Amino acid sequence: MQSTYENRLNAGVFTVHRLNGTKLIKTMAADLEKMLNRKRLAVERLVQVAERHAAKYDWDKEPSDEYNNIQYINAPEPSNIEEDDYASLRKQMQFKSDARFERDVNKNTSIVQVPFNVYSKGTKLLKSVGWSKALNQQFKRNLELEPSLKWQYFGSTEGYIRVYPGFQWRMRAGPHDQLNIYDCRTRLWYTQSSTYPKDMIILLDRSGSMKGLKKSIAIDAVSALLDTLGDNDFFNVLTFSKKVIPVDPCYNSTLMRADRTNKENVLTRLRDMETSDIANFKLALKSTLDIIAEFHNRGDGSGCDCEIMLITDGAPDSYQYIFDQAHKSQSHFRVFAYLVGQDKNYLEPVKDMACNNNGFFTQVKSPTGVTEQVLHHVNVMNRPLAYQGDHHVTWTKAYYDTTNGDEQGFGLISTVASTVYKMVPGEPTAFLGIMATDVPISDMMNSMPINRIGVNAYVYMVTNNAYVMFHPWLETKYVGWDGKVKTKLDYNSIDIDKLEKDDGHAEIRSALVNRRTGQVSTKQHYTPLDNDMKSLLISSGVYYFVPVADTPFSLAMFLPSKYGHTKVNYSANLRSIRYSDVSVAETWRYCWFKNKQSIEEMGWLSQIDMLKRYLLSPNSQTIKCNQELVNGVLFDVYLTATLQSVWSEQKMHQNTSGKGIEMTFFISRSGVVRKYWHTDAQDAYKEDSLQLKYYFNLIFDKLEYPLIYRRAVTQPKDSWLYVVPPTTRGNNKQVVFAAKAVRQKEAIMGVISLVSGLMLGYESFASLFWDEVAQVYGVDCMDRTNKRFCYLVDDNAKIVLSKENQEVGRFFGEINGHVMNQLIEAKVFDRIVLTDETAMCQVKQTKKNVGSAASNPFFSVWSYFMWWTKELVVLLANVALYNWWTLAVVSQPVQANIRPCNQKYEVFVANRSKTPYTNRTWCKDNYAMLCEGEFGVFNVSNSNLFLIVTEQLWASDFERERCNCSGKSEPFSPIRGLEVEAAMEDTCWRAKIIKERKRPLSC
């Protein structure tokens, strides 16, 4: 294969060049920018159309009450009422399967969702729904101009969301699967775009009168306020009666980042809040203003708006003199006041605090009014934007879209959004809502295919806060204690320094946050090769980084030294893929449809099918391909065209199956995989593919090459990689994979063209190897009568062969701790400790909230019934009691049985330069001669394998007991996921860490 490759080079079929990392990362960033810019332009077109129609809409006309409300689309008609007040909303709608949206949709119209706590036939809502119906034409036009667009939508200040294309909205899954609680106004894309970044202090009254239902409403209000905060915001929650006490004592004189971990922590602590004594408003207000002044004087915070949110059941005075003094000495702030409960005796002073300080006052009388009343502050905070007609565009961090109760959908997405205003001459500009569209993170990765950079190189992207958008090591899921796959609590707030831990990465993080372009070299780069951190690649290389223009994102790339800095260019005169055994990386984007019509006519096609269609008609108006990647595929197919006949001849004349060879394969840089089966075992292995699939199917990821490819290229020249993958439960069929990188001579800059390999039956491999050992060393490792033990281990000390089959796949130290410890001391194996800072751990002790009327749903429901008025009954006539009750329960902070944590892992890596190594085991506290045992470690030439031979000299079990070596001989396992607990004095470590971030440009 190597000679064939070099012959093709000499014939000019391809050329090899030195890769310019800086140029490459800039090209990738430019390609990503172009793709994201198209999404942004789609939103801006929608904003223009929306404002044009809103300006000419007749707002004085009685609105129609007929629209595509998701709650009544294809819904059964009620049979137990005489008059259906919602008959005008009930309609049938047809949906058709669409591959782009991965569900049935209707591309002729949009649908409207209204949360259950918003009256779906309210006059203001109907008027807003009426003018926004005109968006349908632009929705469709956008999809024609940009066929890759996903969901387009408009979130209104009235609470509804209009989504295109139309689809059958599924309510949130659960025991009450019709609970329609989604409110777009609390979503990150809405709150982030509707206001400037802000600093918020919530001042919560915990005096003796704030008990029972008042306390419950107050905590719900805190939760709703925190829902409106995003990555660029800061907050704190202070409780007060006689004294002012921060909910989180670690933040007693400052504000914290509004990330999910901090918000969840505060809400959990609030559940234990006790009410007592009399409220000291003077002390509370002064303390709050002092904290704000000190925080801003340090230069911390959002750098934009500042809010004080007062939640109380009444105040004796407005304390305006305190606010006046603060206004003189510090920047502008607003006060928002929420009066909890029915009582109006102390309403005016509370109202004056808000109205005299550029804020807003509202009274929250019942639990159902919490969200609606809290959201008034968003509209007020939007006023500066509205006055300026500020249409700044925002991009969210990555998140899972759970709009439709389906967390999978397009996977991780980012939303680009902008504000919509009602601009009528002679009238104040009014905030109408937010226009947005989703961009799957997978689409971003498609714009910069991994083939450009090669194996063991990778790209990643972060936000202005250094939160990871995508990274090959980012794990957003974990397996819970119940065995179910779940989403990590802080999955989209992972700082890049939790994944990248090279010594020089602090400099890289700073450059990414501050949007600088450059490069940094690293001498020791650790790359985990699997999710369990059982194997590790140690290499040197270079980081390159660059900002993505017109976005808050920055892009980085790591290239390994030597082979990572080569590039292969192929001639473009090859035009055919005629072989049935050829497959390509289906997660890569070789080809795509040019337009919407092609997608609708042809539906979903695999990448290999699209490639073949394109090659038959390269000038087709239907399919467009990445020509550089296609040329690589064609070259690799051309290069390996003779493999089938060679493999077949070997099978026939050299009896390869008799030597245990069951399958041969090769994997190329361009994503091509070819396999040839030497036996009829293919179907049997498909049955057993659960654990084998990563090797057997040779899977390419969007960001990484197959694991066996990545490991093979890290082996020394002419060395083979041997892997024994685990078997599935109940299936003992074991195999061995052997793979080797095809490297070129030094003149070709060490480029790695492909990886070739084979799959061997385990028994055949074992027999061949032990026979070879017997011939070379004169040692019969399979003799069960002697005291000699032979182990074939890989470069991570995992047993590949042993006379005891149950030991295969285990760590050698679990079998012989004494010898393994001596190998570690002799540096034959290096112990490397890694820390996973994105892990999830089980909460050791949980607290149960009991006794408080605020936490008793029966008490809350009864009080709620007592407060109902005639108007409220009419408004919520279509809402079942269980809807509110469930909402009240789920809105409370629930203490989960898991939490983010740090976990420690050990990896053992062989040091070839220390072999061969021989020694004796002995115990200084025992009889030396009785306890001595010989052992030796030998590197199996041209492989990642090591032969360990041990020989014990004791004659009986009694003597063996005496040679315990004071515990030194005890078997041990590598540390796997051990929680790293902070010292007691360091419980406030989060508050001590102030990480560098870049403030948004707009405010």
From TrEMBL:
<feature type="domain" description="VWFA">
    <location>
        <begin position="199"/>
        <end position="378"/>
    </location>
</feature>
<dbReference type="Pfam" id="PF00092">
    <property type="entry name" value="VWA"/>
</dbReference>
<dbReference type="InterPro" id="IPR013608">
    <property type="entry name" value="VWA_N"/>
</dbReference>
<keyword id="KW-0813">Transport</keyword>
<keyword id="KW-0109">Calcium transport</keyword>
<keyword id="KW-1015">Disulfide bond</keyword>
<keyword id="KW-0851">Voltage-gated channel</keyword>
<dbReference type="GO" id="GO:0046872">
    <property type="term" value="F:metal ion binding"/>
</dbReference>
<dbReference type="Pfam" id="PF08473">
    <property type="entry name" value="VGCC_alpha2"/>
</dbReference>
<comment type="similarity">
    <text>Belongs to the calcium channel subunit alpha-2/delta family.</text>
</comment>
<dbReference type="Pfam" id="PF08399">
    <property type="entry name" value="VWA_N"/>
</dbReference>
<dbReference type="GO" id="GO:0005245">
    <property type="term" value="F:voltage-gated calcium channel activity"/>
</dbReference>
<keyword id="KW-0812">Transmembrane</keyword>
<keyword id="KW-0479">Metal-binding</keyword>
<dbReference type="InterPro" id="IPR051173">
    <property type="entry name" value="Ca_channel_alpha-2/delta"/>
</dbReference>
<keyword id="KW-0732">Signal</keyword>
<keyword id="KW-0106">Calcium</keyword>
<dbReference type="InterPro" id="IPR002035">
    <property type="entry name" value="VWF_A"/>
</dbReference>
<keyword id="KW-0407">Ion channel</keyword>
<keyword id="KW-0406">Ion transport</keyword>
<dbReference type="InterPro" id="IPR036465">
    <property type="entry name" value="vWFA_dom_sf"/>
</dbReference>
<dbReference type="InterPro" id="IPR013680">
    <property type="entry name" value="VDCC_a2/dsu"/>
</dbReference>
<keyword id="KW-1133">Transmembrane helix</keyword>
<keyword id="KW-0472">Membrane</keyword>
<keyword id="KW-0325">Glycoprotein</keyword>
<protein>
    <recommendedName>
        <fullName>VWFA domain-containing protein</fullName>
    </recommendedName>
</protein>
<dbReference type="GO" id="GO:0005891">
    <property type="term" value="C:voltage-gated calcium channel complex"/>
</dbReference>
<keyword id="KW-0107">Calcium channel</keyword>
